[in-house]
Design a protein that fits this description.
Layout lengths: L7 E5 L5 H13 L3 E7 L5 H8 L4 E3 L8 H15 L3 E4 L8 H6 L4 E5 L11 H8 L3 E8 L9 E8 L6 H23 L9
Parallel strand pairs: 1-2, 1-4, 2-3, 4-5
Antiparallel strand pairs: 5-6, 6-7
Helix pairs in contact: 1-6
Length: 198
């Protein structure tokens, strides 16, 4: 499929960008979708350099540039409208999306979360799973709605918790699943057939 015919997505990210990198790499390798832009709230985040290295346009929308969250959300919605993506992928975006973005892009925003939702929503999911003493956790890709990790679950992968696991060791194994799952789900949402990769 040529780039001209490939559906375009936007990636939202705030941090180091390992999950975003998996998306950038999949787009470059197969060409069945394009990343039209990375949108970040943190201009100094490592993900910015990753996007630039991949030749992806970077748009920064820092919360501090706006008088309140509603104005920031309206600005983010306007930026998304200008890019007009087929899908918005939250890949380590550490901001809760507001009503305007959610209304305009309902059913078109997916997020990866490091737990088996509905268990352990929120920013400390891996730590919370360890503290609860459960024997397994995993990763979930879900639609984004107005709640905290409450949107419809699209796919999950389970990861056992083993004796001696730390938050860091468990999270690294979960991240490996996240990288594959987010790409598979975004392709599914775009109506693309999964490429065989062996």
């Amino acid at each position: 499929m040529s780039d001209a015919a490939a559906p375009a997505i936007v990636v939202l990210a705030s941090g180091s960008g390992t999950l975003a990198q998996a998306i950038f790499d999949a787009s470059a390798a197969d060409g069945d979708f394009t990343v039209a832009a990375l949108i970040t709230d943190k201009p100094q985040a490592t993900v910015v350099q990753r996007a630039q290295a991949a030749g992806i346009s970077v748009i920064t929308v820092p919360v501090g540039d706006y008088p309140d969250r509603a104005d920031w959300d309206a600005a983010l919605a306007q930026v998304l409208d200008e890019v007009s993506p087929a899908l918005v992928v939250s890949a380590g975006f550490m901001r809760i999306l507001g009503a305007e973005v959610l209304a305009r892009y309902a059913g078109c925003i997916i997020n990866s979360h490091p737990s088996l939702l509905p268990l352990f929503p929120g920013a400390h999911a891996v730590r919370d799973a360890l503290a609860a003493g459960v024997t397994e956790t995993g990763t979930t890709v879900h639609l984004v709605d107005a709640g905290m990790d409450t949107g419809e679950v699209l796919a999950q992968v389970t990861e056992p918790i083993v004796p001696g696991d730390t938050e860091e060791s468990l999270h690294e194994r979960i991240k490996a699943h996240e990288r594959h799952l987010i790409v598979a789900v975004l392709r599914q949402r775009l109506g693309l057939s999964r490429k065989t990769q062996h």
